[in-house]
Amino acid sequence: MPVTSVEKDPENLTMTIVADFPVPISRLWDAYADPRQIEKFWGPPTYPATFTRHDLYPGGRSEYYMTGPEGDRSAGYWEYLAVEKGHSFEVLDGFAGEDGQPNEQMPSMRMVFTFEETAEGSRLTTITYFNSAEELEQLLEMGMEEGTRAAMAQIDDVLTDLRSFAADRATEAQLLSDTQVRVSRVIRGTPQQVWDAHHAPELLQRWLLGPDGWQFTNCQVATEAGQTYRYAWADANGENGFALTGEVRESQPPHREVTTEAMEGIDGPPTLNEQTLTPVEGGTLLSLVITYDSKELRDTVLATGMTEGMEISYSRLEKVLAA
């Protein structure tokens, strides 16, 4: 078990948990930075977590829920107060309601995660700061210490699973709910480079092409919230054209962008696309959460070979960045 000590200090309203791991700091950090990995251990074994948002940068936000054996859910969120890549991050940790908004009836707390190198590998020290002795006691009675121990006992399996999260893995799609899919791919490049490649027309037209031989016929890029974009393509003969259009809802370069997306000429509500770029070992983790209007639409789009098509484009993107 990685937890080596738990110290509760009612006088200073803190609880300090120390855990040691036989891996480098970078590997441990990535386990917390990657939503695919942290959701494998953030919740206890009987209450696994699903992260629908995970923005590890100052001012960013994470949103997750834990699902119990009877299908019951408990939601939470993090607001990032400070981040020092590879060394520490500080969050405001709180409970959330079914709508994802903070549950004001439940206490929130400040948590500081510090990563250090040791002779055997790395150490994670987590200090939780409570607002009052009553809140500390309330959360301990709810099983916070036991739940944390049980959750962290799962980290070792994640840390040894190098292949599932390696930089040379192809694009993968993970079902988060009946209407949400998370697409993940590590791109060899910095977040700024990947961001620029999504917003500079001269770069975008070199990689976002789909099958070989296809070409852009229109590339109107949006870079700020409220702006609209339009991308249109045709095959090598200039035929079978189609276009995607949408609007930028949020823009926080070079980390997060939220857009809508719809196929031109097709009736129906657009998807909501939430893209986050996070630096990890080997490059930048591109995490794209797509929300569809229905399960049927989600399944129809996935059945078209969407994931495979995205891998072709992302592979081409890496070549553009390398050049």
Structure description:
The protein is of the alpha+beta class. The protein has two domains: 3-160, START domain (Alpha-D-Glucose-1,6-Bisphosphate, Chain A, domain 4, 2-Layer Sandwich), CATH 3.30.530; 172-322, 2-Layer Sandwich (Alpha-D-Glucose-1,6-Bisphosphate, Chain A, domain 4), CATH 3.30.530.20. 24% of the residues lie in helices and 40% in strands. The protein has nine helices and 16 strands. The protein has helices spanning 25-33, 35-38, 133-141, 144-152, 155-160, 191-199, 201-207, 295-303, 306-322; strands spanning 3-9, 14-21, 49-54, 61-67, 73-84, 88-96, 109-117, 122-129, 172-175, 180-187, 215-220, 228-234, 242-252, 256-263, 271-280, 283-291. It has an eight-stranded antiparallel β-sheet with strand order 1-2-8-7-6-5-4-3. Strand 9 (172-175) and strand 10 (180-187) form a beta hairpin. Helix 6 (191-199) crosses helix 7. The longest helix is centred in the last third of the chain and has 17 residues, at 306-322. It is globular, with a radius of gyration of 21 Å. The termini are far apart. The mean pLDDT is 93.
Element-level helix/strand string: EEHHEEEEEEHHHEEHHEEEEEEHH
CATH architecture of the largest domain: 2-Layer Sandwich
How would you write the strand order of the largest sheet? 1-2-8-7-6-5-4-3
What's the mean pLDDT score? 93
Q: What is the CATH homologous superfamily assignment of the largest domain?
A: START domain
Number of strands: 16
Number of domains: 2
Organism: Nesterenkonia flava
Protein name: SRPBCC family protein
Family: Belongs to the AHA1 family.
